[in-house]
Amino acid sequence: MRAAKINSNIKSTIEYWKHISHDIHEPLNSHDYYKLSKILDKLLDIVGANEKHELMGLVDVISHMITMYDERENYQVKGMYGIKALKFLMDQHHLTQSNLSEIGSQGVVSEVLQGKRKLNISQIKKLSKRFHVSPNTFID
Questions:
Q1: What are the distances in angstroms from CA 108 to CA 8, 14, 97, 99, 105?
Q2: How far is CA 7 from CA 1, 2, 10, 11, in A?
Q3: Smallest Cα–Cα separation from 90: which of 98, 72, 74?
Q4: What is the rounded CA–CA span in Å between residue 114 and residue 89?
Q5: pLDDT band, very low/low/confident/very high, at 78 (cuts 50, 70, 90)
Q6: Angle at CA of residue 17, ends 134 and 51, nearest 5°
Q7: Measured distance CA(124)–CA(31) in Å, rounded
Q8: What are the pLDDT digits (tens) for 14-41?
Q9: SS3 78
């Protein structure tokens, strides 16, 4: 594809994106999730069984966002927080202390897992993103 064609496509995308970006984004709560699900339903009505439909890429992206939200919301184990939750997630993902660079050095990870040190906000945000769970998961 020539550069001029790519630039033209990007300009068109930007113009249309202004109209849909407030609805099509990673769901942050149940309201966003509901809106995105409704959009997906409408798109599936349009696309039908046609795997080659021009909107199929958008269907895939929205489906992925919904799936990630579902996994994040359903993955947290009720009543399990803080270090206990971190240890559980490490076990589920077959991780060792050396795999948790989000926390810091292996010595820091060891202190956190032994309860000698608390996780800070930065570490909590990184772990939340890595494991696709709420930051509250890591707060005692």
A1: 50, 45, 9, 12, 5
A2: 10, 9, 5, 6
A3: 98
A4: 16
A5: low
A6: 85
A7: 25
A8: 888 888 888 888 888 778 888 998 998 9
A9: coil
